[in-house]
């Protein structure tokens, strides 16, 4: 039988959240090693950074400007746009994040919203936030696979770093998902 409440878990969210932060730091460290050691730094085209938001957080405004830069980069090199699962997932994630932000503004921050309405909408807001977060994780994973294939990586240190980065991104997503499910004791 399924547990009836979050209190049935014997673990609080705090240690899992701390673990998620450590994993995020490890992901950033591996990305830096990969970019600086194997890729000679992040590529810059006409002064614009090409790599997207590879941090453990999600900044929708930065991602919108980054998407503009990616489309510009593709156009300059003659690469077609929106032809991979990675690009479709990424754009869908950013669009849903924008809708979620707009929805949250009117449902939770707008002064005229009633508390009963906010209480009814809060679980749905959390659910769609989790969905969007896992879409971002999936976008990052498919982006790594795409880069792995485009670089024609075989066995070697670079391939290992890319694979371990992907595994750590997955572990980060799982630990953040578990943090949301576990009871939060302050």
Automatic annotation (TrEMBL):
Gene3D superfamilies: 1.20.120.1770. GO terms for cellular component: membrane. Its cofactor is heme b. Residues 1-181 form the Cytochrome b561 domain. The keyword Cytoplasm does not apply. It comes from the Eukaryota. The lineage of its organism: Eukaryota, Viridiplantae, Streptophyta, Embryophyta, Tracheophyta. It is found in: Membrane. One of its GO terms (molecular function) is metal ion binding. This is Cytochrome b561 domain-containing protein. It holds the Pfam family Cytochrom_B561. Keywords: Electron transport, Heme, Iron, Membrane, Metal-binding, Transmembrane, Transmembrane helix, Transport. The chain crosses the membrane at residues 12-36, 88-110, 122-140, 160-182. It is a multi-pass membrane protein. It comes from Ilex paraguariensis (yerba mate).
């Amino acid at each position: 039988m399924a547990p009836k409440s979050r209190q049935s878990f014997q673990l609080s969210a705090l240690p899992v959240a701390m673990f998620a932060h450590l994993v995020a730091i490890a992901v950033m460290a591996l990305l830096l090693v990969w970019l600086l050691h194997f890729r000679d730094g992040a590529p810059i085209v006409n002064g614009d950074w090409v790599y997207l938001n590879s941090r453990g957080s999600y900044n929708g405004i930065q991602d919108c400007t980054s998407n503009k830069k990616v489309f510009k980069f593709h156009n300059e090199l003659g690469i077609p746009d929106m032809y991979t699962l990675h690009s479709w997932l990424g754009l869908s994630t950013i669009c849903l994040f924008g809708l979620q932000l707009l929805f949250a503004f009117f449902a939770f921050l707008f002064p005229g919203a009633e508390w009963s309405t906010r209480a009814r909408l809060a679980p749905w807001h959390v659910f769609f936030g989790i969905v969007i977060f896992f879409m971002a994780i999936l976008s990052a994973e498919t982006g790594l696979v795409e880069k792995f294939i485009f670089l024609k990586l075989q066995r070697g240190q670079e391939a290992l770093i890319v694979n371990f980065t992907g595994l750590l991104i997955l572990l980060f997503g799982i630990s953040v998902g578990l943090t949301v499910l576990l009871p939060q004791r302050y």
